Amino acid sequence: MKKQSGQSIIKLFLREAALVAKDHSLLLTLLIAPLLYAFFYGSIYINKEEQNVKLAVVDDDHSRLSRLLQQNIDNSPIVELIHFPNLEEAKEQMYRGNCQGYFYIPKGTESNLLTLKQSNVVLAVNAARFLPSSDILMNVQQICLTIGAGVRLQYFQKAKA
């Protein structure tokens, strides 16, 4: 009984394979399209390197730390900072597509960090273009974490002395 069941499954598989081979639309959809899709999808990421992606920056803190943040971000080959006097203007430029996002440093950022209080900066990116947004996010996050760790290290060194 099991041998007969196995043979019928094989016959069924061969019959279906023959039907797929005869129908060109099924052949394209089931076999060729996934291969082409995988190739073209992968080709998007071959030249992923973004450079000089415009990022609006608003600095309401005007401190040594905020200037250090901006300097490090601007020194990155990925990001080109454009300074704006207020957050609304920076948001408007992002919405118009003149920059890929905005970076906001609120007032009191340095003083909060120096007293080991939580301090937040805002990075908003336009996700319509995934690759530049991803690169900006990774780059700015790495710089902020590095500078934050440096500030904590200085605090603990002063506390020991």
Distance between the termini: 86 Å
Report Rg.
27 Å
**Percent helix:** 55-70%
Q: Which runs of at least 5 residues are low in confidence (pLDDT < 50)? A: none
Alpha-beta content class:
alpha/beta
Question: Sheet with the most strands?
Answer: 4 strands, mixed
Give the helices and strands as they follow along the chain. HHEHEHEHEH
Count of separate DSSP helical elements: 6
Query: Strand sequence of the main sheet, in spatial order?
Result: 2-1-3-4
Number of strands: 4
Q: What is the mean predicted local confidence, pLDDT? A: 87
Choose one word for the global shape: elongated
User: What percent of residues are in strands?
Assistant: 5-15%
Give a quick summary of the entry.
This protein is an alpha/beta fold.
Walk me through this protein's architecture.
The chain has 161 residues and is α/β, with parallel strands linked by helices. The chain contains six helices and four strands. The chain has helices spanning 2-22, 24-44, 64-75, 87-96, 109-114, 130-160; strands at 53-59, 79-83, 101-105, 122-125. The protein has a four-stranded mixed β-sheet with strand order 2-1-3-4, with helices on both faces. Helix 3 (64-75) links the parallel strand 1 (53-59) and strand 2. Helix 3 crosses helix 6 (130-160). The longest helix is centred in the C-terminal third of the chain and has 31 residues, at 130-160. It is elongated, with a radius of gyration of 27 Å. The N and C termini lie far apart (86 Å). The relative contact order is 0.12. The mean pLDDT is 87.
